[in-house]
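Exam revision sheet. Question 4 asks you to relate a sequence to its structure. Input first:
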Amino acid sequence: MSPEPPTTSLPPPRATCVLVVDDDDATRMLVSRWLAKGGITLFEARSGEEALKIAEERGDEFDAVVLDVMMPGLDGFEVCRRLHDLPMTASTPVLLLTAHANDDKQVVLGVEAGAIDHLAKPFSGPVLVAKVKAICARSQRERQLRSKLEFAERHATVDGLTGLFNRRHFDKRLREEMAHAKRHQRPFTVLMIDLDHFKAVNDTFGHAEGDKVLRHVAAAMPKVLREDDMAFRYGGEEFALILRSTTAESAMSVAERLRQLLKSAPIELGAGGSAPENKVVTYSGGLASADQTNDFDGEAILVRADAALYTAKRTGRDRTVVASDADALAGPVSKR
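Answer key, structure tokens:
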């Protein structure tokens, strides 16, 4: 379906937070005391099982794990492996506390389990704080980098005005949908939508109110779509839907549900001194399918859907037309 409306900024940095895991109360309290002195917020766990439970529930809140190796039940190596199998802590760095930090076998086991560093018991408090702070700083930088990459990727595929996917993402998804239809021999349908008399809205009420209409239509689309369907702002006042595993007949039902939804919710226009007016937004639609009748070939599906859209405009607007061979022969008309 459509993405959530894009945010305008990255999330703010948060306080440094660490999970301390040790079955020995005295050691755990000593570690926590030193880290708290360093300004670090703490979670504590008395066993590997408790640590994993915290990680499953709140693993996105801490930047590192300080983990004892020798514990009853799950030892530190196994806890480390399982932490890296959990989605929220897969990249969270782990510092192992061990009485055998200089034992090559212990070091190898820790590295193989995914630990980023070791610290010998008994430990130096200042060294512990320095190591943990360095690990947390690295973890936070990596998290910020991932956030920036996700932010950039999101804004590269989402239309900033409507929150729908944009034309660039439509082109990509259409190629993927064509391959999926061919591979699985299952139909898909493209519905092209053009708002009726949209130029008149801009001319009468101004472009800000025109943008309001576009957002109004975009907000209605997810209400008639399934999880596998996708909505796009194709450009200007044009939208597109890609409906997976959907015949032309079923797609027509989607188009009509959207039409009725918009008719049941008029939008008030009239900013900038114009007289307020409740306006029902209508659209002309053209739909085309890749199915068994064309061997699930989607190569010309946009041409066919656009031809059907022109036919809808020509024959009175406020309707959806299914593509046919005759549609392709029809000459263009204004979409306004």
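Marking note for examiners. The longest strand covers residues 188-195.
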